[in-house]
Amino acid sequence: MIKTWLSQTSMYRLMIYYLGALLLAGMALSMFGILPYVWWHIGFDFAILWLSCALTSWLCAKIFRTQRNPESELITALILALIVGPLDPLIYSNLLLLAGVGAISQASKYLLAINKKHIFNPAAVAVLLAALFLHQGASWWVGDRHLLWIMVIGGALILHKLRWFHLSLSFLIPYLAVLTAQQGWRLDYLAILSPLLFFSTVMLIEPLTSPTGRRKRILYGVCTALILAGLINYSSLPYTLELALIIANFAFWWTKIKQRIILKFINKEPGAKDIYKFWFEPLKKFSFRPGQFLQWTLPHSRADDRGTRRWFTIASSPTEEKVLLTTKFSDRSSTFKQALRELKPGAEIATSDPDGDFILPIDPTMKLVFIAGGIGITPYRSMIKYLLDTKQSRDIIIIYAAKTAEEFSFKELLAQATEIGLNTIYIQTEKTGFITPEMIKKEIPDWAQRTFYISGPEPMVEAYEKMLKETGIKDAGIRTDFFPGYE
Ligand SMILES: Cc1cc2nc3c(=O)[nH]c(=O)nc-3n(C[C@H](O)[C@H](O)[C@H](O)COP(=O)(O)OP(=O)(O)OC[C@H]3O[C@@H](n4cnc5c(N)ncnc54)[C@H](O)[C@@H]3O)c2cc1C
């Protein structure tokens, strides 16, 4: 049940629930005297921050002629409410300070930005500037051990949803290792861990300021940890956490500025059953590797719980001029998909940079099996078209499973791919059932020497990964790409 809920809740909503739970718990614990704050100060501080964030963002969006993102404003206001104060809002100077911090956070998104992408984490930059110029920085009151359990649960849900445990851990492990090496095992780990857990599961992982690609993200986590350790050891500054993040944001900014991708919608074509292909023209050609994905932002009115952003694989190949998005529509589509279906030719849509490690191996002699479940064929479509266009032969067996024959997409391309050694086995699950270890062993005699790729809806990927492990394939021989949101 949790998995289904997680899969259907947008990242923004999940973050709002996590931060909201921390704020409410902070108020409740203060009410019962467990935390030393006045409970309503916390609520009022948040209200002022939220109002200031919303007003500044609204104004900046008008000036810069762009769309505001109310969910992102709310997240920044919640973060600020959890790390600043709590302050008595009835004192005029506190009121001004809170309004100022909120305003700086939003203004920084527009002013400290290149190609309309902000460089610094907005909450971190706001508290740092407030410390430098208004002489009141962050207290990090949320880093209290009584709130640790919410951070463990909320942080785990966020990292699971993003599949970004590697980023949080690549920060936590080196930082705690340096601290332990310096001070020994007698450290009060609980006290140290609380603010670090908040930092690494909320602020460090902000997708817009963290690098794309798993390796770069690990490096980013390690560098942030080392910068923090350096600042604590070699400076007397009181605002080391936020400064470490700002320095790391700046240091890794080059990885984010390469391209700003705007795609112009050209047309849509019906594909297999319930599937549509959407063709776009990039305003500026951009580079990506076959199999990678983009995060697509489609602002639309009255967006449902799932929000205005989605990840979609680039189903076209880098050898093609146009960009292809292929997706499936259900009887009751999300508002995002409804807006996508109603796009008019010429409409522009912004995306993130390409991301993802679900790509072809560098070694062309590696024997592969591609398992696709329904719409999970999209990354393979990009890889296959690329191999065909660049005339590369590879030893790849494609197992393509869908409920019925009408649900198979890109059949012509798959037939053409036999020219370069790619053979497809179609499985109609309604007739033959799901892929089994026996089926794998029968159809692929050299299965033990192959690397398996699995792509499709999340529950299907999990089930096939389990099945492959039961067949005797080790973790290292399995690569997955999951599509959340589908049942
Ligand atoms: C790396 C990556 C790559 C991806 N690539 C692709 C791709 O190439 N193609 C692709 O199609 N998907 C891809 N996805 C998945 C995609 O991001 C969406 O999650 C998925 O398409 C579901 O879209 P949707 O949420 O708009 O729901 P829909 O497709 O509209 O609906 C899915 C199900 O949820 C129900 N539903 C819809 N809205 C709501 C709601 N508000 N509340 C409750 N139930 C609702 C529907 O009735 C239906 O049963 C990818 C995901 C990732 C992470």
Automatic annotation (TrEMBL):
One of its GO terms (molecular function) is metal ion binding. Keywords: 2Fe-2S, FAD, Flavoprotein, Iron, Iron-sulfur, Membrane, Metal-binding, Oxidoreductase, Transmembrane, Transmembrane helix. Pfam families: NAD_binding_1. Signal peptide: none annotated. Residues 258-361 form the FAD-binding FR-type domain. The chain crosses the membrane at residues 16-40, 46-64, 76-99, 119-135, 187-205, 217-233. InterPro entries: FAD-bd_FR_type, FNR_nucleotide-bd, MRET, OxRdtase_FAD/NAD-bd, Riboflavin_synthase-like_b-brl. Its cofactor is FAD. Gene3D superfamilies: Nucleotide-binding domain of ferredoxin-NADP reductase (FNR) module, Translation factors. This is FAD-binding FR-type domain-containing protein. It comes from Candidatus Doudnabacteria bacterium RIFCSPHIGHO2_12_FULL_48_16. The lineage of its organism: Bacteria, Candidatus Doudnaibacteriota.
